[in-house]
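Customer escalation, tier 2.

The customer says the design service returned an amino acid string that "doesn't look like it belongs to this structure." They asked us to rerun it and document both sides in this ticket. The original structure tokens are below, unchanged.
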């Protein structure tokens, strides 16, 4: 499964910070966020019933049952994200087959440059 994610980091290991991190990783916190919509928790203990609609529940089930998860390229290559976004807009604004092929070639070149291979 490919997707995006947010990360919380503990910069100072105070008891309060550790308690906050423990809470953020809990099913209770995940259920609160899930209920708001637009979020899928990787925590398998967040019940599917916490999600507000069938699409969100299906996404949660796919995430928690996936054999593997990888971050999408735009999350991995921060410096490349603005160009990637511009390329996608280009395709949407001009969806002709020739433009899609041109943008695909351009994105491939950009990926090789960004990844160093």
């Amino acid at each position: 499964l490919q997707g995006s994610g947010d990360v919380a980091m503990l910069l100072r290991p105070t008891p309060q910070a550790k308690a906050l991190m423990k809470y953020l990783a809990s099913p209770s916190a995940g259920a609160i966020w899930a209920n708001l919509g637009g979020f899928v928790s990787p925590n398998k203990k967040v019940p599917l019933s916490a999600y507000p609609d069938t699409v969100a529940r299906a996404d949660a089930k796919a995430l928690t049952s996936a054999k593997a998860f990888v971050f999408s390229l735009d999350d991995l290559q921060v410096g490349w994200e603005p160009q990637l976004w511009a390329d996608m807009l280009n395709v949407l604004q001009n969806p002709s087959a020739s433009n899609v092929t041109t943008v695909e070639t351009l994105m491939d070149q950009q990926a090789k440059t960004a990844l160093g291979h």
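Tier 2 assessment: The sequence is consistent with the input. The chain has two domains: 2-71, 73-115. The chain has six helices and two strands. Sent an explanation to the customer and offered a walkthrough call.
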